[in-house]
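Attaching the record inline, Q. Sequence:
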Amino acid sequence: MRIPSDPNEVGSVRAEVLERALAAGLSRTAADALTLATHEAVMNAIEHGNRFDVALPVTVEFADLGDRVAVRVRDEGPGLSATPAPFRPLADRGRGVALMRGLVDEVKLSRARGETLLTVRKRPEVEHG
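Structure, as predicted:
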């Protein structure tokens, strides 16, 4: 799917990713985590990649790869610095990538291409009780 670089459009991405993740067999917990990580990646693409230029789209691709699910987020911006900003846990902002890494199994960033790839392995649900 493609959306303009408008934060108000992110809700439609979240709904689509959640629906597809559940249909692909992810647990609700894993699907929610992937949805939140995707939200962060899309917001980064809108803000840092496309700099809120609504004429520049953000593309979100979902793939069910059998044993895992992947979401690719791409922007059309000029790209970011090859050196990521340092993690500052007490800062008001700047924790998106760290959050993504805590939510999914793998995060691959291609700053030059404006691309984030999120991957979650499918796991059987563990019953508690």
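DSSP finds three helices and five strands in the chain. The radius of gyration is 15 Å.

More tomorrow.
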